[in-house]
Design a protein that fits this description.
Blueprint: E1 2-5, E2 9-12, E3 28-31, H1 37-44, H2 46-49, E4 54-59, H3 64-71, H4 78-96, E5 101-108, E6 123-130, E7 135-136, H5 139-147, E8 156-157, E9 163-167, E10 181-182, E11 192-199
Parallel strand pairs: 2-3
Antiparallel strand pairs: 1-2, 3-9, 4-5, 5-11, 6-9, 6-11, 7-8, 7-10
Helix pairs in contact: 1-4, 3-4
């Protein structure tokens, strides 16, 4: 069921919404998915288990479970989180006919990309496992934000656990478009757990 839809942004609680990214006018497709309670429990305890964490790897979906098992420390809900991420990797590669993907996962105590911008990639999947999630702009606000040095106007925000495909300026015939977005600020003493998936080539 489509929960909310415009040509620019499509939001649903069904995984099938991700295929809407192939609509030429769609710049963001959001699957409003809530992590299972066990995976959520592991995400909440992540900083206690990993004081610092930052990975960037090219992986196949088949190699994802073993790789994550090697870098994520034992804790309640680890297996469920690994299964969820591995399934997401399979979906990403199937959707875009990719054999492998570029995978990033970071524990953050500050905004990674604090200014509104476009990514010069075909498409990027983002998900915030814990903490504040990605901010994004509608089409009208995007033009305004890119013309100002410091945009302070209204913006939209993903929710923790949302899975979103962000179309970039590297998508075929999307050179002058691409979703405008930024990382959220992180309050002092707080933190985020963020992952992304990209085309590997």
């Amino acid at each position: 069921m489509i929960v909310q839809a415009t040509d620019y942004a499509v939001i649903s609680d069904k995984a099938s919404v991700l295929s809407e990214i192939f609509n030429p006018e769609t710049q963001i497709a959001i699957w409003s998915d809530q992590m299972c309670s066990m995976a959520q429990q592991y995400a909440e305890s992540f900083k206690d288990l990993h004081s610092h964490f930052s990975i960037k790897q090219v992986l196949t979906p088949d190699s994802m479970p073993q790789y994550l098992s090697s870098v994520l420390k034992s804790g309640q809900g680890r297996a469920e989180l690994i299964q969820s991420i591995s399934t997401l990797a399979e979906m990403f590669c199937y959707l875009f006919e990719q054999e492998s993907l570029g995978y990033r996962m970071h524990l953050l105590d500050r905004a990674m990309c604090p200014k509104f911008h476009r990514d010069y990639v075909p498409c990027r999947l983002v998900m915030t496992l814990r903490g504040a999630a990605t901010h994004w702009l509608d089409e009208e606000s995007a033009s305004l934000a890119l013309s100002e040095d410091s945009y302070e106007g209204p913006f939209n925000s993903l929710h923790t656990g949302d899975i979103a495909l962000l179309k970039g300026a590297g998508w075929f015939e999307n050179e002058a478009k691409g979703l405008v977005h930024r990382s959220p600020s992180v309050d002092q003493g707080d933190w985020r757990l963020f992952l992304s998936m990209d085309f590997a080539n």
